[in-house]
Amino acid sequence: MQILIKKFTSLFWVIEVLGFLGMFFPLQIHALKAPFHPSDVLPVLPRQVSWPILNYLNGAADLLPSFVGAALPANNTLDWKGACFYQNTAWLEFHNKTGSQFGGGTLHLKISHAHSWTCMDLYIFATPYRVTWDYYFLSREHTLEFNEWDSEAEYEYVKHKGISIFLMQAGMLGTLQALWDVFPLFTNTGWGENSNLGFLKKHMGASFEQRPQPWVTNVSVDDIHSGDFLAISKIRGRWGGFETLEKWVSGAYAGHTAVCLRDSEGKLWVGESGHEDKEGRDIIAIMPWEEWWEFELKKDDANPHIALLPLRPDIRAKFNETAAWEYARSMDGKPYGYHNLIFSWIDTIDGNYPPPLDAHLVASVMTVWSQIQPSYAANMWNEALNKRLGTKGLNLSDVLVEVEKRGSSFAQLLAIPEQDDWVYSDGKSTSCVAFVLEMYKEAGIFGDLRKSIQVTEFTIKDAYTLNFFENDSSRLPPWCNDGDTVKLPFCQIKGKYRMELPGYNSMDPYPHMNERCPSMPPSYCRTKGC
Ligand SMILES: *[C@@H]1O[C@H](CO)[C@@H](O)[C@H](O)[C@H]1NC(C)=O
Ligand SMILES: *[C@@H]1O[C@H](CO)[C@@H](O)[C@H](O)[C@H]1NC(C)=O
Ligand SMILES: *[C@@H]1O[C@H](CO)[C@@H](O)[C@H](O)[C@H]1NC(C)=O
Ligand SMILES: *[C@@H]1O[C@H](CO)[C@@H](O)[C@H](O)[C@H]1NC(C)=O
Ligand SMILES: *[C@@H]1O[C@H](CO)[C@@H](O)[C@H](O)[C@H]1NC(C)=O
Ligand SMILES: *[C@@H]1O[C@H](CO)[C@@H](O)[C@H](O)[C@H]1NC(C)=O
Would residue 484 count as lying in a domain? Predict the structure, then answer.
């Protein structure tokens, strides 16, 4: 009943807004071609109002962005029928207005034949390197500027595959506008260090205090042991942007992890899931410490901040190196765990999405991503969703139809815990932190709990809050936090800003840990025993 009344008042709103619009566009009323549809005015309503109506009018699958095609350069003009404007064409023109290495481009859109004077079409424009959006209310030629391509890779991509265009439900406008404020990944501007820091300060309450020099520690490799945890935080460029997003939604103050491992000759190695290989793919790699450290110091352009979290001696004594190596070798060269990356974050139906994110937006991102990166992301999430449903080979829209049929929702589906022993078409899937914790599990650190812990459900924060780490500062290596005035409980070995890991080394593991945890900024309060 309550809901019905709410819907009613919302429609009331629609009528009022229509009256208001009429005042502004009196001339166009004469050009009225067809009666308006209630969804035409949804975009002008606040998101809180438009979203429930939109949900009410459509099935979940109908709300997904629909791919209309890719606008290509030269004489390849794309034509399609929109929801509001029935005749649309687009083509792409390359230019070099800024005199940059790869130049930029202008997307030309010719929009005509609206079915009513109140309607508009809302579009998302995407390459694997950027996402932007715009909406069109008037029949005419519009342009969208791409001042500079991000890299040679984007330039090549756009030359061959063009810019992907997705038509959205116009009622999504409010969501996109809200995203514009809090979701810098969606803005088209350079992902500078300052925008990352600013975002994390504002939305997470991170402090980023500058440390005294030297910003790189002269580590002595002899003091690093098997199982020591590396917490990494990247704050610049594309990786910086991705990590910022991951930190915000999960509450972790680090965005990437790796683990140290000594071989039988005593040589130190680093195991990392998410290492970029020469072809630009992200894979699991086991590499000598020197090679890894050299890369982080000289070649990583994301300005990585790195902390070493040494294991506590009694935990280290449990660490079975032989078993750890067996696990590491079995995973070496496998692809990074994209399949289950998001499931560590989403545990609950509504306690994991800072506004304006929601399950529907996750589905929209999945749709856009699988369209623009089909080879790379083939089935990236679909397989994981199918496993949750107990089905095979359903695509995302099929999945949405299926959950509705079962009287469930996409949000409920996303909240189903991942199982560590699920095997995907390209093998077992582990994100950076799942790789480290799975190694801990194999090496015996979780002891008897190993059977009742799903490490693919752990976020990076869940990992560094485990009480596995050194708690006696006198036992930290002599070079630990060398030169810093603040003595951290762990060893920051690189970075201009002091790393903070709230809740570090504080939590005993317990069965089914982290399978049902909410994560809402800025406090990211956990419920007890979640
Ligand atoms: C585009 O078409 C025009 C005329 O149809 C032709 O002169 C021109 O060479 C074409 N350009 C390309 C890049 O194919
Ligand atoms: C754009 O102009 C700059 C400077 O003139 C030049 O170095 C660069 O190669 C041009 N890029 C393209 C894609 O033409
Ligand atoms: C780093 O430490 C080693 C000894 O642990 C020392 O020999 C070396 O000179 C130091 N390097 C720098 C750049 O301080
Ligand atoms: C360590 O792991 C290996 C391989 O899994 C196993 O054979 C060995 O018994 C383990 N050692 C101990 C002390 O548990
Ligand atoms: C999903 O699969 C169905 C058939 O099972 C097909 O009709 C639909 O177009 C597919 N959707 C996408 C987005 O590929
Ligand atoms: C460190 O942790 C161990 C094991 O939990 C505990 O016995 C010890 O008292 C702790 N030491 C300090 C200094 O807190």
Answer: yes
d(CA 268, CA 290): 8
Residue 503, in any domain of the structure: no
Residue type, 80: W
Give the count of domains, the chain: 4
Residues 28 and 76 in one domain: no
Residues with pLDDT less than 70, the chain? 1-39, 41, 44-45, 47, 51, 54-60, 180-191, 280, 356, 373-380
Q: Would you give the DSSP letter of residue 516?
A: S
User: Which of 92, 100, 148, 150 has most ligand 2 atoms within 8 Å of CB, for mutation?
Assistant: 100
Ligand 4 lining (C-beta closer than 6 Å): 320, 322-323, 326
Residues 6+ apart with CB under 8 A from 181: none
Which two tokens mark 145?
């500027």
Distance CA 261, CA 288 (A): 9
Residues 44 and 70 in one domain: no
The verdict on the CB of residue 448 being under 6 Å from ligand 6 is no
pTM equals 0.77
Query: Do 102 and 131 have their domain in common?
Result: yes
**Does ligand 6 lie within 6 Å of residue 473's CB atom?**
no
Which residue's CA is the nearest one to ligand 4's atom 10?
A: 320
Task: Report pLDDT digits (tens) over 155-214.
Answer: 988 998 899 999 988 877 877 777 766 655 544 445 678 888 888 888 888 999 999 989
Q: Are residues 331 and 476 located together in one domain of the fold?
A: yes
Does residue 46 have a cis peptide bond before it, meaning omega lies within 30 degrees of 0?
A: no
Nearest ligand, CA of residue 154?
Answer: 2
The protein residue whose alpha carbon is closest to atom 13 in ligand 3 is 218
- Is residue 47 a contact partner of residue 356, using CB atoms and an 8 Å limit? yes
Ligand (nearest to CA of 318): 4
Residue ranges making up the domain that contains 106: 62-174
**Is any ligand 3 atom within 6 A of the Cβ of residue 218?**
yes
Is 459 within the bounds of a domain? Answer: no
- Using a 10 angstrom Cβ sphere, with 0-12 exposed, 13-18 middle and 19 or more buried, the burial of residue 372 is buried
Nearest CA to ligand 5 atom 1: 395
Q: Which two tokens stand for residue 349?
A: 């139906």
What spacing in Å lies between the alpha carbon of 310 and ligand 3's midpoint? 21
- Whether 387 and 363 map to the same domain: the answer is yes
Q: Does any ligand 6 atom lie closer than 6 A to the CB of residue 523?
A: no
Looking at the structure, tell me whether residues 210 and 309 fall in a common domain: yes
Q: Is residue 287 part of a domain?
A: yes
396 Cα–ligand 1 center, Å: 39
Distance 322 CA to ligand 4 centre (A): 6
Closest CA to 17 of 33, 31, 36, 4: 36
One domain, residues 384 and 289? no
**Shortest-distance ligand to the CA of residue 313:** 6
